[in-house]
Amino acid sequence: MTAQKLDGKACAAAIKDELKARVAELAEHGVTPGLGTVLVGDDPGSQIYVNGKHRDCAQVGIASLRVDLPADTTREQLREEIQKLNADATCTGYIVQLPLPKHLDEHEALGLIDPAKDADGLALASLGKLVLMQPGPLPCTPRGIVELLRRNGVELAGAEVCVVGRGTTVGRPLGLLLTRRSENATVTLCHTGTKELAAHTRNADIVVGAAGVPGLITADMIKQGAALVDVGITRNAEGRQVGDFADDVWEKAGWVTPNPGGVGPMTRAMLLENVVEAAEQQFALAQSGARYARG
Ligand SMILES: Nc1nc2c(c(=O)[nH]1)N[C@@H](CN(C=O)c1ccc(C(=O)N[C@@H](CCC(=O)O)C(=O)O)cc1)CN2
């Protein structure tokens, strides 16, 4: 048996078409959503991802605003740039590209983002809302994973999901997302301190590899027919992107995300969705304010 492909590229293309229609509708009311990006330093991977985000914006009609800062940017300079975006009315939402250079504090930077403009769902207030199950922007990779599974008919309700990796951008928020009533999955969150990783992955209907360890999860560690979601984006010696699953899993799994072409494109599509959603909400709020003022 060869697994079915959970094609993130195709799914993201369909989502982008849907978003194009929503952006066109906003345009009829004179509203253009705008995404800002803040990139500090010259990490080649981050530059590729930020370039991709601006290309995506152009494809769906979202305006984009790019702030590129040198690697030696100080804490105060970064704070100033973030505050400028908070005040910029043309910017519906923005992101601070991660990782930041080591001398800058990511939590501090994310904490400065106006929660109403948090396009990544990674600001402290947004993560707090996720814990409290209140509406708010959702982190793009976890949201993209749920959307990819849903659109491919992979059942989440009642599923045993093993998430390998406890990072703040993927593992932890994904656990929170999957255990909401609307998803209703049971989640085991594994990490470097987990004693018997294979015992947990073997028990799971869905395994998410978000550890950043190439080939960590092999065919003997999964259940026959399981759905596998590969979040790993490690570069090998030849510069090729490699994931957390070994190639032999394709013969045993039911569904597998290709890598590249799986989770990455979904992350980008969900960023656009967060920006369009924020623009729609800001427009609805302005409309109800105007109605209230008219009496
Ligand atoms: N502020 C953020 N920083 C980071 C995030 C994030 O969601 N917000 N996630 C990652 C990087 N990332 C987005 O920023 C990201 C990584 C990979 C891809 C992607 O589409 N990858 C392609 C391959 C691209 C290539 O040719 O190299 C794929 O997997 O098919 C998109 C976004 C860390 N930082």
Automatic annotation (TrEMBL):
It catalyses: (6R)-5,10-methylene-5,6,7,8-tetrahydrofolate + NADP(+) = (6R)-5,10-methenyltetrahydrofolate + NADPH; (6R)-5,10-methenyltetrahydrofolate + H2O = (6R)-10-formyltetrahydrofolate + H(+). Keywords: Amino-acid biosynthesis, Histidine biosynthesis, Hydrolase, Methionine biosynthesis, Multifunctional enzyme, NADP, One-carbon metabolism, Oxidoreductase, Purine biosynthesis. InterPro entries: Aminoacid_DH-like_N_sf, NAD(P)-bd_dom_sf, THF_DH/CycHdrlase, THF_DH/CycHdrlase_cat_dom, THF_DH/CycHdrlase_NAD-bd_dom. Pfam families: THF_DHG_CYH, THF_DHG_CYH_C. GO terms for biological process: L-histidine biosynthetic process; methionine biosynthetic process; purine nucleotide biosynthetic process; tetrahydrofolate interconversion. GO terms for cellular component: cytosol. SUPFAM superfamilies: Aminoacid dehydrogenase-like, N-terminal domain, NAD(P)-binding Rossmann-fold domains. Residues 6-120 form the Tetrahydrofolate dehydrogenase/cyclohydrolase catalytic domain. Pathway: One-carbon metabolism; tetrahydrofolate interconversion. NADP(+) binds at G165, R166, G167, I233. PANTHER family: C-1-TETRAHYDROFOLATE SYNTHASE, CYTOPLASMIC (PTHR48099:SF5), C-1-TETRAHYDROFOLATE SYNTHASE, CYTOPLASMIC-RELATED (PTHR48099). Homodimer. This is Bifunctional protein FolD. It comes from Enemella dayhoffiae. The gene is folD.
